[in-house]
Each structure stands twice: as structure tokens, then as C-alpha cells.
Specification:
145 residues, alpha/beta, 2,3-Dihydroxybiphenyl 1,2-Dioxygenase, domain 1, 4-stranded mixed β-sheet, 10 strands, globular
């Protein structure tokens, strides 16, 4: 199995609300209509998908029941501490809940977290130890991992 | 906020078990030792991180309590139906639980799901409507999205 991730799908409670957040408020590119039944956002070589939570569980052949911390966080790395502050400000204006204000992390970075309308956690972070590529992806430096 | 995802972190119950699955059984590249406190895997322009679930929740300033369906699925797209079968076979041998055997999907693809040791759901899928890039990423065709 090659080390690749192609799509991350978030199961959401209200498609219209979720699409509005990512498409209209954050301004992420999609061809999905505001009332689409599924929405795809082309990110850096991977795709973010929004799909109704119950339908997603059904698709995966698991029970949809579940609550609390999903166990998953998504990190949006940026090139500077200032950009962390800017993005967090933008996310808050877009209706995100700030769950952790930006602060210095023990490992040398500058990190913050917001929750999307379904509670999925995005870290907005500057990691001075990692290089960023032109697409917004990250590459670990050779010496670590 | 640019449409980018840099890192996806899975909060795991047992780091040694999780590292063993991704590193030793699936063979994904990492410099993390088998007993590391955090592990990073360089994927296609993004990084998969494994971190203890309680510590991850603490990092994000949320309660670690939660159970059941995480609401998130991760898709590993491959170039053919045959490769779906091959990867699923490999994942099963690696100790993954097959939660949905490969079958034809209503949207024209060929899809299956397995769960990693913590229950995180990976879809192994062939989507004939999407192009794959040389890194294993996916690009939607211009006409859709």
C-alpha cells in the first residue's frame, strides 16, 4: 500500500451549513452548489469532501452513532506566525469557533485550533522546522521524521 | 485561508500498536522509532501523524472523551479495480479489519473500507472519474467538483 491519502471526507450534520462555511465563508474552491448532496474541494493534491454523516457511515458499513472528540485533527500550516494570526482571525469571522488561541508550542512552533460548524478541529500552525512547498503542502526535512 | 491541508493527526490509544501497523505492516516511511511518542509519515505533500489520543485532545484544548464513529473517512485512491483488491488483501494481512469488502459503488467506482487498529476508516477505492497524479494525489476533472 503506497503512502498516499487522496480524499478526506467529513461527515456533516447539515450539508448546507458545512458547504456555506468552506465555500462561501472560507472561500475554498468547489463546483458544488450551496445545497449539494456532496461537495468536493480541491486542495493541495488531495480533496476535502463533505457528505452527510449518516450516509458516510452507511457507505463505510459502520454505525453512525458516535459523539465527542473525533480523535482527528487537521493542520493548516502557514509560513509565519503572523499568518497564523491572520488566518485565525479570518476563520473566526467566517463563523468558526476558536478552541485554542494562538500560542507558542513547546516544540518551537506557534499553534492554534478552531472548530468548523460540525466540530472538526483545524490547527492553524507555523512550524519553523518544516518546509512548505508551493502548493501549501509540507515536507519534513531530511534529518527528522 | 488558502485551501490546503498539511497534516492529518490521528489520536491513538497505543502508539506502539499504531506505529507498528503503519510503519512495519503497511511499510509506510517514517523515521519514528517503534516506541516513539509521536510519528510522522510523509505522504503525497501532506503528513500523517500519530499521537496519543489524550495528548492530542489536550493539545487542541478539548475533552478527549468521545466514542463511536469519528465522522471522518480517509480515502486511498488507486488506479484500477485490481489494485483495490490487492491493497485490501495487503491491509488485511497487515492486521486491518475489513469493514466493507470491495464492491461496485452506485457512482461508478469500486470501493472498500478497512479500519486501522484504532478504528480509523480507510477507503480503498478506484474512481474512474478522477485523474491521479504521479504522487498518488487526485485531481478532479475540470467538468466536475
Amino acid at each position: 500500500m503506497k503512502p498516499t491519502l487522496s480524499v478526506i471526507t467529513l461527515g456533516v450534520a447539515d450539508m448546507r451549513r458545512a458547504i456555506d462555511f468552506y465555500k462561501n465563508r472560507l472561500g475554498w474552491p468547489t463546483r458544488a452548489a450551496d445545497d449539494a448532496g456532496i461537495a468536493f474541494f480541491q486542495l493541495n493534491g488531495i480533496i476535502l469532501a463533505l457528505y452527510p454523516r449518516v450516509a458516510l457511515a452507511d457507505e463505510a458499513n459502520v454505525s453512525a452513532s458516535g459523539a465527542g472528540f473525533s480523535g482527528v485533527t487537521l493542520s493548516h500550516n502557514v509560513a509565519s506566525r503572523e499568518e497564523v494570526d491572520q488566518v485565525l482571525f479570518q476563520a473566526e469571522r467566517a463563523g468558526a469557533s476558536i478552541v485554542k488561541p494562538a500560542c507558542d508550542a513547546s516544540w518551537g512552533g506557534y499553534s492554534s485550533f478552531f472548530a468548523d460548524p460540525d466540530g472538526y478541529l483545524w490547527e492553524v500552525v507555523h512550524n519553523p522546522h518544516w518546509d512548505m512547498d508551493e502548493h501549501g503542502g509540507v515536507m519534513m526535512k531530511k534529518a527528522e521524521g
